């Protein structure tokens, strides 16, 4: 495992998180995100979506994107919904409503995708990211947020 203290992930600002993800191997990310700090890291990441949301970039958007992150302790997974509607962004943990788009991926792919350090097209082509539903919403989604890149 990396010498990085995983408890710091949840408190990192987005730019620092992106730079850290870029330095870690997939194995290191999967180990960290498969351990005891997974929930605090995921909660911190998803809590930032509304903060980084840019309503001007998402004018007219109406999308519910479910993110299912696999690779949790004991083979568990976690699902969050990011809902963009009427110029607002909200997040739901363990959503029950039907999404417009659903994305399933492992911890390393998730971290790389949200920080812009991975190639989404290649991840889909290699089967590391699975998307269902309105794929145009999934492609537009990344442009609705002011996220620093690693």
TrEMBL record:
Pfam family, one: SCP2
UniProt name for this protein: SCP2 domain-containing protein
Native source species: Knoellia flava
Domain SCP2: start-end pairs: 56-146
């Amino acid at each position: 495992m990396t010498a990085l203290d995983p408890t710091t992930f949840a408190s990192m600002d987005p730019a620092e998180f992106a730079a850290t993800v870029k330095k870690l191997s997939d194995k290191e990310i999967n180990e960290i995100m498969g351990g005891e700090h997974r929930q605090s890291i995921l909660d911190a990441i998803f809590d930032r979506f509304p903060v980084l949301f840019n309503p001007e970039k998402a004018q007219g958007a109406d999308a519910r994107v479910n993110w299912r992150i696999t690779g949790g302790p004991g083979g568990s997974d976690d699902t969050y919904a990011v809902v963009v509607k009427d110029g607002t962004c909200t997040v739901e943990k363990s959503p029950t409503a039907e999404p417009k788009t659903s994305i399933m991926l492992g911890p390393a792919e998730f971290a790389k995708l949200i920080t812009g350090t991975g190639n989404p097209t290649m991840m889909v082509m290699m089967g590391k990211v699975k998307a269902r539903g309105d794929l145009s919403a999934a492609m537009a989604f990344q442009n609705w947020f002011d996220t620093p890149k690693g």
